[in-house]
């Protein structure tokens, strides 16, 4: 991780296209299915709908978006890392920041087919609390919960 200069910054709309392109590529690789929404709708979702309930942080490397996390004090809504930069600690940096700002408990959903995400969350203290949540991709998913060790 030391050879990478990663900065964590609040999301700004100037990063919209980069963020959505990275997010879509990462998600498609993770679940093996094309994104169902248009690129333009995805940008609108990021710029207008998510900020109503969530904070959005980006991981940047030389102005290149390499990760995004969408969260509030109780929930992680989205966490995607650029497919070329997975496994080097970016997800952990984002997750640690959100844990520190949480109410001491976080929940999230991940797709059952996304075994890398399951390993990642379980390694970072999340426990399975439910399965089968309805989602627009019509894929089985898993609900996780993290509770602060105090």
UniProtKB/TrEMBL annotation:
Q: Which residues form the N-acetyltransferase domain?
A: 6-150
Stored CDD domains: NAT_SF
Residues spanning the membrane: none
| InterPro entries, sorted | Acyl_CoA_acyltransferase, GNAT_dom, MshD_Acetyltransferase
Q: So which domain of life are we looking at?
A: Bacteria
Instruction: Write the signal peptide boundaries.
Output: none
What protein is this chain from?
Answer: GNAT family N-acetyltransferase
């Amino acid at each position: 991780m030391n050879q990478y200069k990663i900065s964590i910054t609040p999301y700004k709309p100037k990063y919209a296209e980069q963020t959505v392109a990275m997010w879509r590529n990462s998600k498609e690789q993770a679940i093996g299915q094309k994104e169902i929404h248009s690129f333009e709708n995805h940008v609108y979702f990021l710029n207008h709908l998510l900020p109503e309930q969530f904070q959005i942080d980006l991981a940047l490397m030389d102005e290149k978006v390499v990760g995004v996390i969408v969260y509030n004090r109780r929930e992680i809504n989205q966490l995607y890392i650029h497919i070329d930069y997975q496994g080097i600690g970016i997800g952990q940096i984002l997750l640690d920041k959100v844990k520190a700002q949480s109410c001491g408990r976080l929940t999230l959903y991940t797709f059952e087919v996304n075994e890398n995400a399951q390993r990642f969350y379980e390694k970072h203290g999340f426990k399975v609390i439910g399965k089968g949540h309805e989602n627009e991709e019509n894929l089985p998913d898993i609900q996780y919960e993290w509770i602060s060790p105090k």
